[in-house]
Q: What sequence folds into this?
């Protein structure tokens, strides 16, 4: 477990270090209240992963798929609006796990029953002040 405190100005330095430290992982679960900074973190992290497509919040789409410069993909999910794990199965979540792509999940709790046995990185975001956020990282 480790803790990182950061401001928006420090974010790209944080995500660069994060991408390198966790380069061998492909599933990232981002927990934390609304406005805690999950989407913002993913947006900046996706630059490290050389995402070419526009990164936006999948609040309504549930799942966004982004192309990277090397031809691989990043799947960005936001499960806030889902009601149960079956809905996640219905949108093909288990097929994503077979893919070699990176998967980042906001509001991930409904996915945990489908992630048993997978190597994941869990990030817990906390809003400390208007200008600072804290992340607790578990592997
Ligand atoms: N380290 C930071 N310091 C200050 N502000 C930040 C930081 N990270 C993110 N923010 C700001 O917090 C706001 C909300 O961030 P974001 O949309 O990333 O939250 P979220 O966790 O994805 O929320 P939701 O659960 O609604 O999807 C944005 O205005 C963003 O600029
Ligand atoms: Mg978000």
A:
């Amino acid at each position: 477990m480790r803790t990182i405190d950061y401001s928006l100005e420090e974010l790209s330095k944080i995500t660069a270090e994060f991408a390198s430290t966790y380069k061998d992982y492909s599933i990232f679960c981002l927990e934390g209240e609304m406005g805690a900074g999950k989407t913002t973190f993913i947006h900046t992290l996706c630059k490290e992963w050389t995402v070419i497509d526009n990164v936006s919040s999948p609040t309504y789409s549930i799942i966004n798929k982004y192309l990277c410069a090397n031809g691989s993909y990043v799947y960005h999910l936001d499960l806030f609006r889902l009601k149960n794990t079956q809905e996640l199965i219905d949108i093909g979540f288990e097929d994503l796990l077979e893919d070699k792509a990176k998967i980042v999940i906001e509001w991930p709790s409904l996915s945990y029953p489908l992630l048993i046995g997978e190597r994941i990185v869990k990030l817990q975001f906390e809003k400390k002040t208007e200008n600072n956020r804290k992340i607790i990282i578990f592997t």
In short: Residues 37 and 125 are 7 Å apart (CA to CA).
